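Hi X.,

You mentioned you wanted examples for the new student's onboarding notes, showing what a folding record looks like when two proteins sit in one file. Here is a clean example. The first protein comes first, with its sequence line followed by its structure tokens.
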Amino acid sequence: MNVATYFSRCISVNYRCDGEDDCGDGSDEFHCGKIRTWRIFFPSSAERTIFFLSHHLSDKTNSTCKDDEFQCRRGKACIPYEKVCDKVSDCSDGSDEPLHCGVDECRKVEDNGCGHRCVDTKESFRCECRDGYKLMADGKACADVDECVEVPGACSQQCVNTEGSYNCKCNQEYYSREADGRGCKRKDGQEAWLLFTNKYYIRNMTVSAARMSLVHQDLKNVVSMDFHYGRQEIYFADVSARVIYRSKVGESARTPVVSDHANGLEGVSIDWVNDKLYWLDRNTQHMYVSELDGTNRKTIMVDIEDPRAIAVHPGNGFVFFTSWNLHAFIGRVGMNGDPETFVRIHSTVKGHEVAWPNALTIDFFTDRIWWADAHLDYIAYADFNGNNVHKVVGQARAPHVFALSVFDDYLYWTDWNLKAILKANKFTGKTRADDHEVENPTPIFFPNF
């Protein structure tokens, strides 16, 4: 196949955009732009990505030229962009003075093919899209940006994508939408409290750390906790005592609810809707469920190698849990343990970056899970299918996360190496200077609504 030049000379199509002026006028190297990415901010304050087709910077990714410079085709020299199309050849090959200098390709849509907007440049043009859209692979057509997927934290809670935009919604029972249209503010206005343990005691602390009280002491090795909001009860597993206890908030007494065949206790989680207790045992490699008092115990899943964390979602009938075996994974299964409902939503078998998923929590208002990997040193989130994964905290602040919880717009976690309880925005990982040091910290938890 041949292509025609401005001089009506035919050359092989294989010579098109090969970096060589085979036509003598540079026309075979015209319109060879590549897609570049630019980040811009819109009035919604949500960061979106828009793609431009840029011809005079088409080789920018392979050069050292600055943004305001033009790269000559031969020799790859850089010249100021202001010298392009000034009727003086500054490039040895004359590529800065093509025959189409001054041609306005944007005058006619048929000349540029841009779906939304055409921006004329000295030697060419570029296509741009309106707010809320991005250029497709051809560099001309525009497609809607799904901010709910592509923009982390576009909304504090629920996000609804629309053509060219999106809408944010808040849980109407507990939250009201803030003035920016994106954030959600709790209606009660009360400061939240945080439950945590360092193995030997359980304490209650405001998130500002202004107030703290002792809940339980003289424990052996508490490795997990959960909370029943309606009953105001704390459930916690002491792996050395081989017991799962429960206690009323404000009372020092604690009652064993599971003590038989509990030699390898790991994560515990409460179904506060149906009043059930779920837990994992690394010795038996089982997942169990029982009444809140430990009766009617039932094994609902077996052969879970090295199970660790567990979180129940009674609203959609799923249990999320982790395994840090050689083939580590984050799993999801029906609350009755039906094998047909089991799926590894994030796993090494699928090629995902996971090794020691030590901590797991659910944000019931965004329909996402957050987890922490204590070997790869990160905190990330994904949807309930394990898709749209975003890492929010890296190594410096997560060298060995043990437990994790989410409340409002923030993550709270304990780290063995840092010996601290830490806090960060759940979408961005941005922090404030209000971390509080705790000796040998382990689980933390916020009551579910």
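Then the second protein repeats the pattern, sequence line and then tokens:
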Amino acid sequence: MDDTQSIPGLEYGDVQRKYLDSDLVAKNDEPGKRIADMSRQIENQAEKQRVVGDSSRNLQQTINQLIELQKIGI
């Protein structure tokens, strides 16, 4: 039993190419690619929401400053 570690095993890629249909392998990889794409889209949308939120806060601060200046002027 101790000598089995010295026997080289099979490479998964070689077995996959030899015994599996390439169309099925491609279909199997597709969900992972779609998930990765959707994750990037979610990250992009979150970044856009952060930018819009920051812009809204800055606009509100500017409006408040203008209101204060108007009160001082009156």
